[in-house]
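In response to the reviewer comment on reproducibility (Comment 2.3), we provide here a single inverse folding case reported in full, input and output, so that an independent group could reproduce the run without further information from us. The structure tokens appear first.
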């Protein structure tokens, strides 16, 4: 049975290291011009930076890891 798991007994969101919402929204954020992204990011509270950077780094790592496919 196909269940969308990337690893045995692992939900996609666990394997990605990010929620489904984040996985969907992160690529859209990358379409915003860099200067505008940074300007918007500067307005975030510190805890938001931390909540964003960790899953973003995980998705970037997975992207690089899977680039050969």
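Designed residues, in position order:
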């Amino acid at each position: 049975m196909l269940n969308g798991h990337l690893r045995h007994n692992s939900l996609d969101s666990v394997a990605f290291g990010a929620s489904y919402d984040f996985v969907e929204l992160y690529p859209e954020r990358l379409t915003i011009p860099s200067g505008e992204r940074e300007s918007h990011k500067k307005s975030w509270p510190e805890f938001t930076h931390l909540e964003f950077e960790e899953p973003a780094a995980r998705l970037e790592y997975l992207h690089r890891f899977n680039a050969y496919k």
